[in-house]
């Protein structure tokens, strides 16, 4: 009789104990997510503070948008022999020099690019 009573108590406490352990696990997981989000918020706050600095904004505009200050001359260096791929899975395309062919009208040069563009597919 005593064994049956102990089994009944154990079975009665098993489900609440399992729920308690599952909830503790969920609380630990949520605490970890909260820590991650708080560190992300701190990083974003730091980035926002950097963007409030006019010198940083000016530096980013120069770097990202290639802006130049009044009186400065901006240069873009192009390598005529540069090889690049136009899209993943396609063959490399060689960038042609930008020099004009003597005596060839512009529309002939334009039409000459159509087969070259078609062959890159």
Describe the structure.
The chain has a domain at 2-65. Helices cover 64% and strands 5% of the residues. It has helices at residues 2-52, 54-65, 106-119; strands at residues 83-85, 92-94. By secondary structure, it is mainly alpha-helical. The N and C termini lie far apart (84 Å). It contains 3 helices and 2 strands, in the order H-H-E-E-H. A hairpin with a 6-residue loop joins strand 1 and strand 2 (92-94). The chain has a two-stranded antiparallel ribbon with strand order 1-2.
Task: Classify the helix fraction into a percent range.
Answer: 55-70%
User: Nearest-angstrom radius of gyration?
Assistant: 34 Å
How much β-strand is present in the residues? under 5%
Q: Uncertain runs with pLDDT below 50, 5 residues or more? A: none
Whole-number mean pLDDT: 82
Q: Return the structural class.
A: mainly alpha
Strand arrangement across the biggest beta sheet: 1-2
How many helices does DSSP assign?
A: 3
Shape: elongated
Termini Cα gap: 84 Å
What does the main sheet amount to? 2 strands, antiparallel
């Amino acid at each position: 009789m005593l064994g049956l009573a102990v089994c009944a108590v154990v079975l009665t406490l098993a489900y609440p104990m399992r729920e308690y352990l599952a909830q503790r696990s969920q609380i630990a997981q949520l605490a970890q997510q909260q820590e991650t989000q708080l560190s992300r918020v701190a990083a974003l706050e730091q980035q926002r503070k950097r963007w409030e600095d006019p010198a940083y904004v000016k530096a980013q505009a120069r770097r990202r948008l290639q802006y130049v200050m009044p009186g400065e001359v901006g240069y873009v260096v192009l390598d005529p022999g540069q090889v690049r791929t136009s899209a993943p899975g396609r063959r490399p395309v060689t960038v042609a020099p930008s020099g004009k062919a003597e005596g060839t009208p512009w529309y002939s040069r334009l039409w000459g690019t159509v087969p070259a563009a078609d062959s890159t597919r």
